[in-house]
Here is the input.
Amino acid sequence: MKTLVIGGNGFIGTNLVESLLQEGHEVCVFDRYPSRYKEPRQDVQYLVGDLGNHGEVHEAVKGMDWVFHLAYTTLPQTSNDDPVYDVRSNLTDTVQLLQECRDSQVKKVVFISSGGTVYGIPKQVPIPEDHPQQPICSYGITKLAIEKYLYLYQRIWGLEYVAARLSNPYGEQQNPHSKQGAIGVFLGNVAERKPITIWGDGEVVRDYIYIKDAVSALVKAAEYQPGPDCPRVFNIGAGCGHSLNQIVEALKQVVDLPVEVKYTPARPVDVPTTVLDITRARTVLGWSPKVSLNQGLERSWQWVKSLSLI
Ligand SMILES: NC(=O)c1ccc[n+]([C@@H]2O[C@H](COP(=O)([O-])OP(=O)(O)OC[C@H]3O[C@@H](n4cnc5c(N)ncnc54)[C@H](O)[C@@H]3O)[C@@H](O)[C@H]2O)c1
Here is the structure.
């Protein structure tokens, strides 16, 4: 398939591009920045552009079969600082993208939503897709609103989509200096011989999924051909939870350097627990995660070591 990956030079995007190429797809990346850690590939077309530039998006979408939408300008923990910016740069520009996809007769849009924020504070764990949705950050609200527009475009204009409510991916290409992604940041801290900082008491539980497992779900989502009343929203996670303290203990088994931990006050945007119920993805997409936490941490550590931070 002719595939456009918007935000394809980021953490998830670079892994997704590799997976798509392995499956024999033709890939074009649209991103405002080059990849931080990977050289451009000869077999990929790279377009430099911004989702907010409608002319650039119009050109990029033309002739594409699949469009993966991974570009996002905000993070859960910063989105409440400026919700207007979140709405303008993510919601409005995504609806514009959907117009372009509809007009260009794109066969499938795969949108990366957020399993960690759309539900808000869970009433039930693991969380199924039909759990009440009450986000406590603007990021979660815009992700959810985009899901609703995807539904609208599918229902009214037949634009096919899948929204993947992704949990907490980790692994190769995850920026160890980012504000997001505990495992990547922790590994970067260890490599640079700095203490790991944990907000709160470390008992916050998350559903950590190894990145290659996550992108294989995204490819399955693109291949999926739903009937009229079939689900189009899927939780994508490992389906099991680990606290930050458990992650630190697991890291100690993998890294060959000392691990020091510093605790600081908790943040208001962090929900106490997120563990996703992935039964729907298993049964409908025929997908399941394959890589254990220990294997994933080992691979992530080898990659962080290759960055020569040590
Ligand atoms: N990493 C996570 O923990 C996580 C969890 C759930 C969902 N997600 C979602 O997955 C998607 C990808 O996340 P990631 O971790 O790879 O992020 P990332 O920051 O590593 O990559 C995002 C890429 O999008 C590009 N981008 C951002 N805004 C753009 C714009 N307006 N125009 C063009 N390019 C733009 C950036 O340059 C970057 O290369 C995002 O939508 C994010 O919200 C991420």
User: Anything to note?
Assistant: The radius of gyration is 19 Å. The first strand starts at residue 2 and ends at 6.
